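Take a sample.
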Amino acid sequence: MSISKTASVVIILPPQSVSFFFVLICCLVLLAAFVSYPDVVRGRAKLVALNAPKLVTAKTEGSLVQLLVHNEQQVVKGAHLAYLHSTAQHRQVIGLLQWLQALIHVGGKHSDALLRKGPPQQFSNLGELQPQYQEFGLVLAETVQLLASGYYTQKRAALYKDLAFLKELQQNTGQQRGISEQDYNLQQITFDAKTSLFKDKVIAPLELNEERSRLLAKESGLRQLQAQEVNSAFSLASKQKELLELDKLTADQRLKFSAALLRL
């Protein structure tokens, strides 16, 4: 007959050990009867929403005169929420802001069309912004007169035409100088031959002087062509310098307008 290991341990234990374990179990049962665990555990928790309400803070102080949205309405970034009390007409300020944002968004040469059209309305009731807008208006009028009117564009186009004409003239002068140099060299060979014949007393001094006159005439024509080349190069450099100055003046005016735009 086989006996399990646990049963054999219990059989082997003396009676005192069995009594000790019995008393221990009874104590645990009594202790469990007096000690109770709560059914509700109290604590602190913080609930965070995915789209929590945002606090809207005005950049300037003033009383609220008109609310443009209602409660729980969905709004987007940049939407107008309310009007604060101001000496300016709110719609004129918004119209000015939209026009300035269009100028900034377009920027560069493409803004000339907007400048040529001018402001969409007369901004005469801007309140505290009126002095700054008047200073901006002076720069705007100057910019429109110089840039948007097409004066710089037309002058630049005329300068490019002058440059093309001068380059062509310089090329033609160079070709003529090359032909004149060949003619001069041939005349020099003829003169050298006549000089040799004169030394041999084959021709008269008058004939040699006539040949020398022809050579001097060829040399004079060649020097005139060289002078024309120098003048063409100088005129070409002057036009290029004038074009650079025009571009610099245009860039300076655009920077001046951009600075006035940002100050406003």
Summary: Residues 81-148 form one domain. The CA atoms of residues 61 and 76 lie 23 Å apart. The two ends are 107 Å apart (CA to CA).
